[in-house]
Amino acid sequence: MRINRRTLLIGALAVPFIGSQAFGQAFPNRPLTIAIPFAAGGPTDMIARLLADGMSRELGQPVAAENVTGAGGTIAAARVAQSRPDGHTLMIHHIGLAAAATLYRQLPFSIERGFAPLGVVSHTGMAIVSRPDFPARDLASYLAVLREQGDRLNLGHSGLGGSNQLCGMLMQHAAGRSATTIVFRGSAPAMTEMMAGRLDISCEQATVAAPFARDGRIKAYAVTLPERIPGFDVPTAREQGVDLIMSAWHGLYAAAGTPPEIQNRLAQAIRVALRDERLKQRFAETLTTVASDAEATPAHHAAFLASEIARLRPLIVEAGQFAD
User: Fold this and answer.
1) Does the global pTM surpass 0.70?
2) Torsion 102-108-112-116 (CA) sign
3) CB 223 within 8 A of CB 208
4) Matching CATH topology for 31-123+248-319 and 126-240?
5) 71 to each of 74, 95, 162, 250, how far by Cα in Å?
6) Are 206 and 43 in contact (CB under 8 A)?
7) CA–CA distances in Å: residue 12 to residues 23, 25, 305
8) 126-240 falls under which CATH superfamily?
9) CA torsion 273→279→280→285, rounded to 10°?
10) CA-CA distances (angstroms) from residue 274 to 12, 71, 257, 271, 296?
11) CA 55, CA 63: separation in Å to the nearest integer?
């Protein structure tokens, strides 16, 4: 049998292409799950479910969002860190994951080495707030009152590693004085106590604080993003001469060891999902900013997570607030 050399050459060149196509079709080959470390109905839950919907359409497989709560988000993190690194088990988490690297003395996984960061998803600014009759007119006088009264003031947050606890640490660091901390079971009871005048100060997600600040039930002095938040007319801390920058950002993760090809495919699905107009509108309604295409990449996310761990570590150590 005679074999045409030209046919043989074409066939040989086609092998890598066929192999690449076969790999692309192999992922995802079954439904995916996004573990949500916090309760249903909260900001993380909302972001995760909108993201899952968009990613499902792009990936051609169902993407289920499952609330796996407890231990400041570390139960969900452990599940994903210990999962098979094939890209089908994912987790969404906020800035608290960066804080956990210092807050928790012992974890069954490594924050730095246990995950494959896939992309930053969103940013939400924090609002520095107080009870309605708090004796301050702007951020400078707010910090001056904290500096003067210290532990005579009550500062509320909703749990270890939460964005409002971390923002409160930054705020106290800026003032050079600590308040007395009160831990609430969520933001809602903290806002109730603040409106009643029994909680003095807090640093809450703008999403939560804005409705109460708009009608004067609490006072808002500053937001912690570099620019003002559309729909919430409050000046930034930087505008007022205080370098207090913090985002309650969210990112998506797979287990460490997930192949780069799968990481990139998931990152592409994130970027496509974030371009959806319905998602953008819902984010805007909750004062949440959609991450840019440049932020929604594994490389950017990994570098950003490392920088946030390094930035938060000395603040947490200074505050001396650790989990057992």
Assistant:
1) yes
2) negative
3) no
4) yes
5) 5, 15, 11, 18
6) no
7) 18, 21, 43
8) Periplasmic binding protein-like II (3.40.190.10)
9) -160
10) 40, 29, 25, 5, 9
11) 7
Print pLDDT tens along the chain (324 aa).
443 444 333 333 343 433 333 344 589 999 999 999 988 988 899 999 999 999 999 999 999 999 999 887 889 999 999 999 999 999 999 999 999 999 998 899 999 999 999 999 999 999 999 999 999 999 999 999 999 999 999 999 988 888 999 999 999 999 999 999 999 988 889 999 999 999 999 999 999 999 999 999 999 999 999 999 999 999 999 999 999 999 999 999 999 999 999 999 999 999 999 999 999 999 999 999 999 999 999 999 999 999 999 999 999 998 887 776
- Which tokens belong to 98? 């960066």
Domain ranges of the chain: 31-123+248-319, 126-240
Percent composition of the chain: helix, strand, coil (DSSP 3-state, to 5): 45, 20, 35
Per CATH, the homologous superfamily of domain 31-123+248-319 is Bordetella uptake gene, domain 1 (3.40.190.150)
In the prediction, which pLDDT does 17 show? 36
Amino acid at 190: A
Whether 70 contacts 114, CB under 8 Å: no
The number of residues in the chain equals 324
Residues sharing a CB contact under 8 Å with residue 206, sequence separation 6 or more, in sequence order: 124, 125, 126, 127, 223, 229, 232, 234, 287
How far is it, in rounded angstroms, from Cα 196 to Cα 53? 39
Q: At what angle do helices 96-103 and 74-81 cross, to 10 degrees?
A: 90
